[in-house]
Structures are given as structure tokens and as C-alpha cells.
Amino acid sequence: MGRQYRQIEVDQEGDVFCARLRNSRLGEEDIYGFSEDILELINEDGCRKLVLELGPKDPYCLFSVFLAKLVSIKRRLDKNGGQLKLASVGPETYRVFEICKLHNLFDFAPDRQKAIADFK
Question: What is the average per-residue pLDDT within 77-81?
Fold first, then answer.
């Protein structure tokens, strides 16, 4: 995998891909770039187990667009027999998931290591 992504940093532990946002502040174009990066990871790099770290700093973005992209990413992984785990989600960000009634759609882990362990 040595590919460079615009909006995410990625490394791999076994068959688990771990991605985190390069910047916590995302404009609308950045969110679309983030989504393209993740879909490239899934479609071209064969990612089926993805840990997406959203913290430790809460993302500052247009959450409606960001959440829509996360739902799309989860659906793509589900369709390909994969899984998505969200890690290091701060309380304010988690509250947005709750308000939007999406907290039951996603798997959350307190940190990256717990998310990776949950795959096994």
C-alpha cells in the first residue's frame, strides 16, 4: 500500500486498515476528498476491515455531509463483506450521531487498539 491520500493517513495492522483524518477541520470539498480516499482504499487496496479514527480532536465540519459520506462508506464495506469501526470518537461527535439517530448504525470503539481487537 504506499499510496498517498489527500485527506487521510493510513497504516495497516495485519488485514485491518487504520485511517485517521489528516486535519480535524474539513470543508465540504475536503469531505468529498475524504470519501474518495476511503473508497479508493476499499476498491483499489482491497480494504475489508476498516478502523476510522475520528479523534482525539472532534472533527469540525459540515456534519450532515460528513455523516452521509460515512453511511455511504459503511454501505460499500457491507456490500463487499467488510466492516467499519469508528474509534476515538469524542463525546460531542458521538452526540451528533445520537441526534441524527445513527449511533446504532455504526460500531464504536474507545480507541484504535480496541477496534482492531474487536475484528478478531
Answer: 95
Q: Are 118 and 85 in contact (CB under 8 A)?
A: yes
Residue 45: its pLDDT value, please? Answer: 93
CA 82 and chain centroid, separation: 13
Quick one: which of 23, 84, 30, 86 has its CA closest to 57? 23
Q: Is the pTM of this model over 0.70?
A: yes
Type and span of the H or E element at 107: strand 107-109
- The torsion angles phi and psi of 23, rounded to 5 degrees, stand at -130, 140
Which domains, from first to last, does the chain contain?
Answer: 8-119 (3.30.750.24)
Element (H, E) at 47: none
Choose among 1, 23, 3, 7: nearest CA to 73.
7
Find the angle CA(15)-CA(20)-CA(98) to the nearest 5 degrees: 105
Kindly state the cell numbers that stand for 28: 465540504
